[in-house]
Protein 1
Amino acid sequence: MIIYGSEIAKNIKADIKSRVDEIVASGKRKPCLCVILVGDDPASISYVKGKEKACAEIGFASKMITLPQETSEEELLDIVRECNNDDNIDGILVQLPLPKHINAHNIIINIDPNKDVDGLHPLNVAKLYQSQDGFVPCTPQGVMQILKQANVSLAGKHVVVIGRSHLVGSPVARLLLNENATVTMCHSYTQDLSSITKLADILVVCVGKPRMITKEYVKEGAVVIDVGVNRDENGKLCGDVDFENVKEKCSLITPVPKGVGPMTICMLLVNTLKAYEGRING
Ligand code: NAP
């Protein structure tokens, strides 16, 4: 069975839109997401446009701040602080990667943790690792939603996560552990990768290598979640999993596109609504 994140995202967005309609009908202002983009990287521009469009579709306000490539770290920090102090902004997202002359960590630690809808501020990271309520990064949260909506039970299951980045692999592994899965994390130093992945009831792949995972890596009947977004040698969008090669062997699999990707923006909207409600409810 193929699990389409795009369909799950559609339902969640419809729920958020209803909630926004209620908010607006009650005379309150709309939730507002502010996205800050530095430079003109085409992929980043397209991601930012996607976020602006998603906000418009569900009735959020959005503010897009576009800054030139040569913006200094201090100038960007000033803008982040202005957004922190702006009562009409609920969520702040600084589009990554930033130009090399800007230290992304310095920027992230200066975002108000209550507006950190990307879930990357150290306070929110700590909350995740202490199982407290905070902002969880969007892609890992999207993976968890897909598993939940597909009724995949996690407690006691062996989940293998390939990839340990701060953005995806590590938080997804922690979320799975918080749901009582037995989690094995693999990375570029892992030896005999397939001997480990073949033990997985659930395989979450966030490795960033086009179609690297073939059926030799997958146990019969496993659930396979493909987080990867890559271009193959022909420029075609593809995941980290060789979908055609693997699909017959799995019980459930996410495609690329229309799998985890649409869930990421959707979870950003969920986090922005949460930030808004947290702020208006004090
Ligand atoms: P990343 O920072 O490059 O991390 C890749 C991870 O894979 C690292 O932990 C690396 O290990 C590991 N790795 C690399 N080669 C390996 C190998 N041969 N065997 C085992 N592990 C290996 O990438 P990321 O930011 O986590 O993103 C991963 C993928 O998800 C990318 O395709 C990205 O485009 C995609 N992504 C998708 C979304 C979405 O919305 N769907 C969002 C974010 C990212 P080391 O730690 O040892 O280097």
Protein 2
Amino acid sequence: MAYHILLIEDDANIRSFAATILQSNGFSVTACETATQGLKFFNEKRPDLIIVDIGLPDGSGIDVCRVTRTGVGPFVPVIFLTAKGDLPTRLAAFEAGAQDYVQKPFAIEELLARVKVHLKVKQSQDELARRNYDLEILHRVQQDLSDMIVHDLKAPLTSIKGTLDIIKSRGLIGEETYKSLLSNAGEAADFMLLMVNDILDIGRSEQRALPVELSSVSVETMMTKLKSLFAPTCQRKTIRILSTIDPQIKTLTTDANLFFRILVNLTSNAVKFSPKGQDTEITGSKINQRARFSVSDRGPGVPPHLKNHIFDKYAVGHAQSAAESSGTGIGLAFCRLAVTTLGGNILVEDRPGGGSRFTFELEAK
Ligand code: CA
């Protein structure tokens, strides 16, 4: 299909000369006399390229160019025709978004050469835009699909967890060994639910902000809940979760659910990486009107090349070994998202004496 060129030129001789040459070179040409006619055609037909004179009876070619740069639609290169030596006008036209100029009087070979170059550039840009668009659609479909799957995992998981809780609470299983197996299964279901919620929240945050519900939260109650959640793991690894909370931050005005899940994710990592018998420590202090919480372990620590990426979504891609990747999944990405949503920040550093320390600060209200 022939490229369509819009030619806007009020000089009848130049107009018909240029149109004839372009047509004889295989282009389809619409020739207009005024800016108004040119823009009308542009809006209705969207040509592949525009050649526009600067001085038109009803306005300037620069304004025509500027108008074509607003709105959506494929990119259309603009070449303008200008009198020799008029530098300020040329600069103004480039500023308005033009790609090139040809000085009058011009050699037709030069005009043709420039037209061909810019059509070629346009072709590659259109191709790129098309590919980007296709990729974006594909990405969205994949994202929607994975969100849907993760979302659908929630119901059966909740049911498993509920069933385990019923068996446990009604004392349907008496033998100690089975009881502890039941606890393990319950704990695993809890963590899977936590991960499912983290993934869903991160997915949601890419579309809109995480919902926040502020209430007065007892930090001590959170610590008790946390310790009981990890009790089976701690027992297995003969470690303890020790907490020291500054009385000044006994209660916080924050989102209880997000706050707890930040603590759970950080503690989960700490407990996972702690060697047998090495306690995990949680401290809470008040510093400059902010509540600062640290979760420290005596694990292998975070390698330097991971420190900048560990809170990224899919940070696992930066890990250099399976051992590194096992602690850098979606949980830390959720932590940063939740902390940021609550107006704070989070970082990881080496713990003096070995291990890592994750610290986050929230407003102390
Ligand atoms: Ca003119």
